Amino acid sequence: GLLLLAAALGATAAARCPAPCVCDNLRAHVLCLNGSLTAIPDTIPELTREFDLRGNSFMVIPARAFLATPYLTHLDLQRCKVERLEEGAFRGLGRLVYLNLASNGIVLLYQESLDGLSSLQQLILAGNRIEEIQPGAFGHLGSLTVLDLRANALVYLPDMVFQGLQVLKWLRLSHNALHVLGSEAFAALPALRRLSLDHNELQALPGEALARLDGATWLDLGHNPITYVAEEALAMASLRHLFLDHASLQDVASDAFARSPQLRILDLRENQLQGLPPLAGVGGLVRVSLDGNPLLCSCFLRPFHKWLARARVQAEGACAAPPTLRGRSLDSLKSLEMRCSRLRPPPSPTAPPEQPRAAGSQQCPQGCVCSPDFHHGSCENRNLQEIPRDFPEDTRLLDLRRNPFRTVPPDAFPGLKELVSLHLQRCSIRVLHPGALRGLESLVYLYLTNNHISTLAAAAFEGAPQLAYLDLDHNAFTRVPAGTFRLLPNLISLHLQHNAIKELAEGDLAGAKGLRWLYLAGNAIRHIAPAALAPTKMLEKLQLEGNHLSEVPTAALWGLPALSELKLSRNPIKHMGDSVFLPVASSLQHLYLDNMGLERISPHAFTGLGPKIRSLYLESNKMSNIPDMSNFTGLEILNLQDVPFHCDCQLLPLRRWINKLNLRVGAICGSPEEAKGLKVKLSTAFQTCPGWGQGKAGETNPNKTMAASKSSKKKRSGKSPARGFSKSKA
């Protein structure tokens, strides 16, 4: 075959190798390096397998640019000044396994930009200016194993942004500006083993998003401004290597990694840790690296030191204090050497630790830590009664958690015009006075969780017009603070979870015109007024799980043309009537109806819903049948676990439908007795049903059925079929 290929290339090489290119006929390799090409040459040998175009000036890759070279397996377009990929730019390259687009100027990935690359295994997009990835951009890359998005301008990852990447092993997102990750951002990555999120702007460990990665073994979160790792913050069942080096860590909860039991290597180098507690739930831990931390080797570190010996964990690190132990490695210490007799107790406002200050450094309030490199200030857990002042004017993140301030007075943060993120969690705050945030003209993130706030005056937000993310979870609100949002024209995300809100009334959200994500889980909401959500016409995500709703709030859903996710899980909705989701049928993509005790779903409950639905969660309910969903052709996740299906002839249409899906749905027969516990797809209870033989031929060969299903999905939606609950058969 190679001889024939070489002969074919040799016969046409002289006529089909344009200047300034060089054609290597034997290797089927064409190089057009560092030239002045402004268009993709179309006169190169048709049988070329490797095409190297580095260093040219294409600006735009037009549709079907490589139709003349359908046998390409490797394509290199680095440093070609590419700014835009037209839809269908690579169509026809079904054999391509390697595509390098690094160091260009690409800003946006369109939904069809990468269409036609069904065999692609490595995609390198590092060093571009990508700010946004449209949903579905990677939907055609079902063979991709490595995706490199390093050094772009990504700020936010929306839910399901990586859908279609069913075999992806390594996702590289380092050196972006990521602040926020959608809770389902990684939900469509069943094969991912390695995730690189280092060198971003994550201010907290994104535990909810990471919990979707059951099989990931390697996670790099280094060089992020994360200050604290909370209780059970990381739930990754297979994780073995965790990097949190060069962050801003000041504290780690003892059970922070208890839900990651396979953890073996923990890298905490170059943080601000004075010590660690004994770590629970990590029986497989082999090494913890603490080099570069200001370790205080006093009696407070003794429990951790004893735990290291007992658990046989190797620790790397050296004491920074007291002076008698400075420089001593942790493994050389003995418990009796770690004394507290002449050391001051943990930091407090009356006895703050001395902070070394480099010559020429900026001011910092006593007892606080200011990092000029990260532009961060922290007075976390200093038992302060009043909010300190005199932080450097270029401070961008201010961490004041765990101080008993009780109130935030007017003008509490003078001179901090560049402040972007303010942390006031667990500060016993009851009142934000009018003007409390005055002057914070750059503030984007405000965290007020775990306080005692029951009401808010709109004037409290005067002077913070850029505020986009407001987190008020775990407070004492009994209703949404009406009128509060009129001074927040840029509010995108509002968290009011785990309060005591009983209803959502008309006018509660007045002024929240740009709101996209509303989180109201864990309240006591029984009623949502028909016009309550009317001001939020841009709303994309509505989370109402864990409330007291007894019916779907259909009337309140009118006027929400962008709503793509609705969570009603854990509400006591027993019956679901006709057309309950009709108001949002044209936009809804993710619907959560699990754990509700749902007993009956009307045959017409899902009227209007169809191909746009990508994920549907119905697990842990009590109904014995579900409506016809044969037009849900875009489903990627369907969960029917723990539903007691009655496997008789009435269920035959459902059985046939799920038999055609390339998804694992978890449907199990709950009755009759002879079928109990069997998968619906495998139960023989249907073989006596009228019409069973009509579909029998298709059902006796499930592989053929799934192949047909895949083919039909491609034709209907133009997308590669994506993964569901998991990639094995139901």
UniProtKB/TrEMBL annotation:
Region described as Disordered: 341-362, 691-730
Residue intervals of the LRRCT domain: 293-341, 644-690
Highest taxon of the lineage: Eukaryota
Comp. bias regions, Pro residues: 344-355
Domain LRRNT: 16-50, 363-397
Cellular localization per UniProt: Secreted, Extracellular space, Extracellular matrix
UniProt-listed InterPro entries: Cys-rich_flank_reg_C, Leu-rich_rpt, Leu-rich_rpt_typical-subtyp, LRR_dom_sf, LRR_TM_domain-containing, LRRNT
Keyword Ribosomal protein: no
GO cellular component, one term: plasma membrane
Keywords: Disulfide bond, Extracellular matrix, Glycoprotein, Leucine-rich repeat, Repeat, Secreted, Signal
Alphabetical list of PROSITE patterns matching this protein: LRR (PS51450)
Similarity comment text for this entry: Belongs to the small leucine-rich proteoglycan (SLRP) family. SLRP class IV subfamily.
Function: Potential negative modulator of chondrocyte differentiation. Inhibits collagen fibrillogenesis in vitro. May influence chondrocyte's differentiation by acting on its cellular collagenous microenvironment.
Subunit (UniProt): Associates with collagen and binds to collagen fibrils.
Name of the featured protein: Chondroadherin-like protein
Gene responsible for this protein: Chadl
